[in-house]
Amino acid sequence: MRDIAHFVNGQTLIGTSGRFGDVFNPNTGEVQARVQFATDAEIDAAVQAAAKAQIGWAATNPQRRARVMFDFKRLIERDMNTLAEILSSEHGKVIADSKGDIQRGLEVIEFACGIPHILKGEYTEGAGPGIDVYSMRQPLGVAAGITPFNFPAMIPMWMFGIAIAVGNSFILKPSEKDPTVPVKLAELMMEAGAPAGVLNVIHGDKSAVDAILTHPDIKAVSFVGSSDIAHYVYQTGTAHGKRVQAMGGAKNHGIVLPDADMAQVVKDLSGAAFGSAGERCMALPVVVPVGKKTADELRERLVAEIDTLKVGVSTDADAHYGPVVSAQHRAKIADYIRIGQEEGAELVVDGRDFHLQGYEKGFFIGPSLFDGVKKGMKTYQEEIFGPVLQIVRAESFEEALALPSEHQYGNGVAIFTRNGRAAREFASRVNVGMVGINVPIPVPVAYHTFGGWKRSAFGDTNQHGVEGVKFYTKIKTITARWPEGEVEDSAFVIPTMK
User: Fold this and answer.
1) Using CA atoms, how far apart are residues 465 and 456, in angstroms rounded to an integer?
2) 116 Cβ partners below 8 Å, 6+ apart?
3) How buried is residue 92: exposed, middle or buried, by Cβ count under 10 Å (0-12/13-18/19+)?
4) Is 55 exposed, middle or buried (0-12, 13-18, 19+ CB in 10 A)?
5) Is the separation of the CB atoms in 167 and 143 below 8 Å?
6) What class, spelled out in words, does domain 2-248+456-478 have in CATH?
7) Buried (b) or exposed (e) across 327-365, using 16+ Cβ within 10 A?
8) In 174-310, beta strands by DSSP E
9) CA dist 219 → 141, 191, 206, 216, 471 (Å)
10) What pLDDT digit, counting tens, does each position of 157-189 carry?
């Protein structure tokens, strides 16, 4: 049995806790490895190594730090196929989707390559008589990231890419379900020229999370996961004096107006709802057609489209999506489908009985479609995180607008229409953090910023982009005077520029 160890101070660290987590191959249902869970002492050792490395790393000029990022990007591209295969074997997503996972992370690394420009401060000459004022951004010290199973490459790179580029060192605690790729990323960061201790990976469960949240030498924590845990991470981390950005769950809506290009909408919905088996925080699991005619046509087209989808093993190039990450998660999705039926929604397509020949023990579940879903239903209010699409019918634009605006989650939303005025009004008024206009998964490009509203995010700053730079730095402002000539009397009132 292969053991997955920690990566601390530039080398493999064999854990001593005697505690492990099973790492499955979702395609076969078999345990393929064990991941070691860290002790508090091992986590402290990682933090101390990071703190020691950070001093010299912060003193390295931004251009040299950027060169490490350029080399890291090159190495990831070199090893893309291998990394994608490993990722798929532990997560279950198809190879093409794993490459997309890695590529979206690399786009943040590309942004981080421009850190010398982004870190340029502000300068005002002559703010007062002989007085200049300037500001600079400086790193916090040791930062940490706690990442989910659904994007084991992208989300870690979203976090540590910017954190390291601006001069911090980093502790990464990835999901115990698919931990190998995060370790590979740390190894490649060392190969790219980052000093030992700048990027460390420790594994564990809630005990490791709590150790990170309470460690006095960790200055900032970034988290992505479910909303209840995000709230816990935010409260605990801030109570211990840390900066925290904690991204939670989602229930993203797709609003379909009567004038939308229905053929394109169906293709977009199919990919956004069922791609990666629905295990995306920016998946589109709720579609809101406006008007009965729109809803009836959409339903008919969706049923036909679902019939064309192929569920297969991760290595099947023709498969649209693969298995979900675990047997427990598959059972949870199936239970939500059962609850939806009991609540009175119409189960138009039932994916629970799907089995893949030759892979009967794999964690597969077919696509499911509900119609007649109401906003008071449990299955509408909660995140299913699986290949389940729900139709919630609306009679008017205002009713459709209210659904995502009033939902407890506010991560993403999309509107499908040819009407520019309606799209503009919707984007302005909807109470959601990220909006797509004829874009089903509106994840912003790396030089913008990612983050939801309401119970989808806790904290004041978003992921990556300039917001990410702000999160991982503190600003210092200097007011300077170089007097000459006669000594001036001291001022006993507040200085002004009057």
Assistant:
1) 19
2) 61, 62, 63, 66
3) buried
4) exposed
5) no
6) alpha beta
7) eebbeebbebbeebeebebebbbebeeeebeebeebbbb
8) 199-201, 218-224, 243-247, 253-256, 286-289
9) 6, 26, 19, 7, 11
10) 999 999 999 999 999 999 999 999 999 999 999
Among all chains, which residue has been given the structure tokens 């911090």? 168
173 by Cβ neighbours in 10 Å (0-12 / 13-18 / 19+) ranks as buried
pLDDT of 294-343, one tens digit each?
999 999 999 999 999 999 999 999 999 999 999 999 999 999 999 999 99
> Helices 80-91 and 62-78 meet at what angle, rounded to 10?
70
Q: Letter for the amino acid at 55?
A: I
Which letter does DSSP use for residue 352 in this model? T
Asked if the model's pLDDT at residue 210 lies above 90, the reply is yes
pLDDT value for 485: 74
For residue 15, which amino acid is it?
A: G
pLDDT of residue 498: 65
DSSP states of 294-308 as a string? HHHHHHHHHHHHHTT
Could you give the residue ranges of the DSSP H alpha helices within 240-326? 262-274, 292-306
The mean per-residue pLDDT over the stretch 260-285 comes to 97
Span 253-437 CATH architecture: 3-Layer(aba) Sandwich (3.40)
Catalytic residue among 159, 198, 281, 345: 281
Q: What whole-number distance in Å separates Cα of residue 253 and Cα of residue 449?
A: 20
As to burial, measured by CB atoms within 10 angstroms (0-12 exposed, 13-18 middle, 19+ buried), residue 267 is middle
Structure tokens at 175: 């999901």
Identity of residue 78: R
Of 105, 111, 50, the residue nearest 80 (C-alpha): 105
Residue 113: active-site member: no
Domain edges within the chain: 2-248+456-478, 253-437
Contact at 8 Å (CB) between 227 and 410?
A: no
According to the model, what pLDDT value does residue 489 have? 74
Q: Mind giving me the DSSP string for 14-49?
A: ---S--EEEEEETTTTEEEEEEEPPPHHHHHHHHHH
Two tokens, residue 481 = 């005077």
